Every structure is written in C-alpha cells, then in structure tokens.
Amino acid sequence: MGSVWDDVKAVLVVVYHVLYYWLEAIVLAFVPTSVMAKDIAGQTVLITGAGSGIGRLLALEFATHNCRLALWDVNSSGNQETALLAKGMGATVRTYTVDVSDREQVYSAASKVTSELGHVDILVNNAGIVTGQKFLDCPDSMIDKTMQVNTMAHFWTVKAFLPAMLSRNHGHVVSVASSAGLLGVTGLADYCSSKFGAVGFDESLRFELKALGKDGVHTTVVCPYLISTGMFDGCQVKFPWLLNSLEPEVVSEEIIKAVLRNQEFLILPRLLYIFMALKGLLPVKCVHVLSDYMGASHMMDTFKGRKSS
Ligand SMILES: NC(=O)c1ccc[n+]([C@@H]2O[C@H](COP(=O)([O-])OP(=O)(O)OC[C@H]3O[C@@H](n4cnc5c(N)ncnc54)[C@H](O)[C@@H]3O)[C@@H](O)[C@H]2O)c1
Ligand SMILES: *[C@@H]1O[C@H](CO)[C@@H](O)[C@H](O)[C@H]1NC(C)=O
C-alpha cells in the first residue's frame, strides 16, 4: 500500500518536471534556430497540396535545405510548376497527381513514393479546402470533401508513412491546420471542424509516440491566421494593426524553423497564443465579445475564395 509520502513524492516529481520543461522552453525561445537546427539535408520530404500557396513555398524552402521532394497535388499543372521551380534550385523532385480525399489513391501513391524515393523522412499534410458558407448552406458533398481533405487524409498518409518512421525511430509529421482549428468562426463550421480534427489528431498522435518511446519521430502542428494565398480571398481583416493577414513567405519560413527545431506547436501570429489562453480562462460570453470585436462574426461575409473551386 502506498504511503502518503509516496503520493507527496509523486506530486513533487510532477511539479519538478513541469517547472523544468517550462524553464527549458523559455531558454530555448532565445536560442536561434541556426544553433539548434537539425540536419535535414538529403532527407525525403513529402508535401501534399504542393501545387500552390504554402505547399509550393514549403517545397522551395525544403529544396534550399537540399531535401528530396515528393510533391502531391490533385492539380497536376500547379504541381508541375512547383516541381520546375524546385528543380531549378537543384532539387531531386517527383510529382504525383493524387486526390488525398480518396484513401485508395493515397495508399497507392504512397507505395509508389517509397519505391521511387525510399522512406519518407518528413511528411507534410498541407492540402486543404474551404467551403466558405454558413453551415446550413454548405452542400453535403462539400462538407464530406472538407473533412476528407483537411482531416481524414492525415489519417491515411500517417497510416502509410508512420510505420517506416517507427521502425527506424526517425521521422517528422507536420500538420498544416489553422487558427480555425483552435477557435470557432462564423461561416466556417465545416472548415473549423475539419481543422479541430487535424489538431486533435496531431495531439493524440504525439501522445501515442511518447507512450511508445519513439523519441526520434516528431510532430509539428501549424495553426496560422489568414494567409494571403488566395484561399480566403475577399475576407476582411478588422484591425490590421492588431491582427493582420500573414504573408505566405513568412508562414512557410516559420514552418521550416519549427520543423528544424522539432517544435510541436506553432501558432501564427503570436497574439493568438493570448487568445487561446483567454479562451481557456474566461467565461464563454466574454469570449464571444472578444471574438466579435476581433471580427470573427463577419470575417466570412465578404469571402470569395478561389473562383475555380
Ligand atoms: N490561406 C489561409 O488563409 C490559411 C490559413 C490557415 C491555414 N491554411 C491552411 O494552409 C494549407 C495551405 O493553404 P493555402 O493557403 O496554401 O491554399 P491553396 O489553395 O493555395 O493550396 C492548397 C493546395 O491543396 C491542393 N488540394 C486541394 N484539394 C486537394 C486534394 N483533394 N488532393 C490533393 N491536393 C489538394 C490544391 O490543389 C492546392 O494546390 C491548407 O491546409 C489551409 O487550410 C490556410
Ligand atoms: C491549377 O493550377 C494552375 C497553375 O497554378 C492554376 O492556374 C489553376 O487555376 C489551378 N486549377 C484549379 C482547379 O485550382
């Protein structure tokens, strides 16, 4: 039977570890990435949604780090353009036309990648879509598609590539989610649900890896606010001086830094860390007042998005 002293000891150990890691995080925040970056030269990086926006920029960033690239997109011409740019930088590149909402396509493309490029070291789940309508106006087919692309595709790619990462105790799974995966937004119910799903998947996966003792396999989840890639064209930012839309180049640079540092969580811009804390602390009605003030109730009123889709 455990004595009271054992219980006290257990609590003290927890307190010690919490304080230790807290201090560690504060110290590491001041260490430049160049000092603590892991070496990813020669590694194989798979990026979904590489034919545009953040996916394309990430491909080019990884190319500058001398990585080999497996680029996936449903849009072959966009993907081809990215490949051309990356090849121009001297990278080894393979493109794959994959609709990540189709599990069978994911699995068959995954085995093709492994046979052509070897094991994937860094998997970046970046492909994403948005309906951009009030929930009752969202066509069922778009709700299905949104969940498939923004959440479920992460399941299938991880199922395909994680086993080899585990057996080598080496790898990194990056999930490009969104601040809409942390905070609900009017007019984005299906999108928010899918991004909350991606965030929850990442967090659970991280716990599972920890429980397995696989300290060589890392995860990073990225939660950016609006980015000017075209995906959310038309959306209004209420107070640009406080919370402005992000430049795609800044976002891709920050993502690479987070990967090189094995950073688990990246929220952009930093102000949103404060929002997250307030959401956890304040009563719901206060959170409504704050999100409304920041424009979350009307942000989607002027949404245009990408005209083609
Ligand atoms: N743009 C923003 O404001 C913003 C904000 C936060 C998070 N994000 C997320 O960042 C990621 C990248 O967004 P972006 O702004 O670069 O968008 P984007 O539209 O420029 O690029 C998305 C890419 O994904 C591809 N894609 C879409 N459906 C696919 C499918 N079924 N199979 C394979 N590829 C598919 C598209 O063809 C496109 O090339 C997305 O997950 C998005 O949700 C975007
Ligand atoms: C596919 O990519 C091309 C090249 O970037 C772009 O012009 C086109 O609009 C995209 N098509 C769709 C359906 O998104």
TrEMBL record:
<dbReference type="Pfam" id="PF00106">
    <property type="entry name" value="adh_short"/>
</dbReference>
<comment type="similarity">
    <text>Belongs to the short-chain dehydrogenases/reductases (SDR) family.</text>
</comment>
<protein>
    <submittedName>
        <fullName>Uncharacterized protein</fullName>
    </submittedName>
</protein>
<keyword id="KW-0812">Transmembrane</keyword>
<keyword id="KW-0560">Oxidoreductase</keyword>
<keyword id="KW-1133">Transmembrane helix</keyword>
<dbReference type="InterPro" id="IPR036291">
    <property type="entry name" value="NAD(P)-bd_dom_sf"/>
</dbReference>
<dbReference type="GO" id="GO:0016616">
    <property type="term" value="F:oxidoreductase activity, acting on the CH-OH group of donors, NAD or NADP as acceptor"/>
</dbReference>
<keyword id="KW-0520">NAD</keyword>
<dbReference type="GO" id="GO:0005811">
    <property type="term" value="C:lipid droplet"/>
</dbReference>
<feature type="transmembrane region" description="Helical">
    <location>
        <begin position="12"/>
        <end position="31"/>
    </location>
</feature>
<dbReference type="InterPro" id="IPR002347">
    <property type="entry name" value="SDR_fam"/>
</dbReference>
<keyword id="KW-0472">Membrane</keyword>
